[in-house]
């Protein structure tokens, strides 16, 4: 085994990047880094029983040169017997429509396609070819924009289902390996174009630092990342634990107890705000330092009704002694009502999600999902007694006369009273999806189930309800803690 392959293989094992038999989608531009990544995973394919699929995006930015890149990767994958998915998108047009930079439009488009192929191939990981210089450039860009510990950490070698096997090797190591193995690759002429922010850091700022201070900024920034990562991880785990104690996550909002929140240290409070933002925004982007400061000031005031409008149509407000993050309420909201057909998907765009149903023998359902009395009431998968719900089930918004017999309450309650007791803001109540049988509510999705219909020890047949949210036309699964 080549020494370079051995180095990357050790990183893969030390960081548990993937399991044996994994399906991996590989971003393949045709440049040195991505060709190297493809070669490494190809050489390790037999040992780890990997199922590899390369994905190439023709950005339509460089005319004939981009078409030549596409032809190159097609020939390379054919020679190496690697499955390849090729896409062509006008990234410049996408950037103009979304009013974002071409760089950002390219990144968003690439990862959207990676995830599309991931789902189609039933793969598990997306492998991208970021290496040591990319890491340093990312950290420097974060510093220039203004950052905290998270930005100083840069990219993670494993982040969810995204893996970066080459993150600890340098561009020179990659190029020397390809040269020694006589493996061709393409050179992207836009890498020399200083109109792109990252290129200015790479081609102008870093050489200037080397010349003026006789310091290699790449090695220093990578060292900085290694130093701050353990501290960041400790703060993050502490904040996650604190968040679970002070916050409630619902279908349309995150609610944080002000009393508990204000008792925490500033470092933890800052992170809890960012965690809450991530939950409601489905990502941490677009929340700046100034927004965090505004939210903290809002919490110090603590007056019900006070609110601030944040990016992406999200607002933070004080209500009933809580800090609530939610999507800004539209002026009008249409009620919805959809018949539930067992075994089919029921979509409620007004509620931002879809409902799936499945009928199973009780013991099989309990084995797969756990006993219903152990499932968290706020989980998005719930088990009900099919024989008790064998009627015209409806997925709908609230209606006059709705009642529920909440688990653990021991009696029936009007839905309106339930929402008031739970301190659900009035403007959010119409958006909460309900599974109903007539005016009886079986499930207030994401909040509470009905004692009358929930599966029990003597249940014979179970109907499994699964709710998932939809974002930008694609599926965004909410995995609940049971």
Task: Please give a structural write-up.
- This protein is of the alpha+beta class and 482 residues long.
- The chain folds into three domains: 3-219, HUPs (Rossmann fold, 3-Layer(aba) Sandwich), CATH 3.40.50; 250-327, Uridine Diphospho-n-acetylenolpyruvylglucosamine Reductase, domain 3 (2-Layer Sandwich), CATH 3.30.465; 337-476, Phenylalanyl-trna Synthetase, Chain B, domain 3 (Phenylalanyl-tRNA Synthetase, Chain B, domain 3, 3-Layer(bba) Sandwich), CATH 3.50.40.
- The protein has helices spanning 3-14, 32-43, 45-48, 64-80, 91-98, 102-121, 132-145, 149-153, 171-180, 197-213, 217-246, 258-262, 266-281, 289-301, 362-369, 415-421, 426-429, and strands at 23-27, 51-58, 83-88, 125-127, 158-159, 162-163, 247-249, 253-257, 307-310, 314-319, 322-327, 337-339, 345-348, 353-361, 381-385, 393-396, 403-404, 413-414, 434-437, 440-444, 448-449, 461-471, 474-476.
- The strands form five sheets. A six-stranded mixed β-sheet has the order 3-2-1-4-6-5, with helices on both faces. Strands 7-8-11-10-9 form a five-stranded antiparallel β-sheet.
- Strand 7 and strand 8 form a beta hairpin.
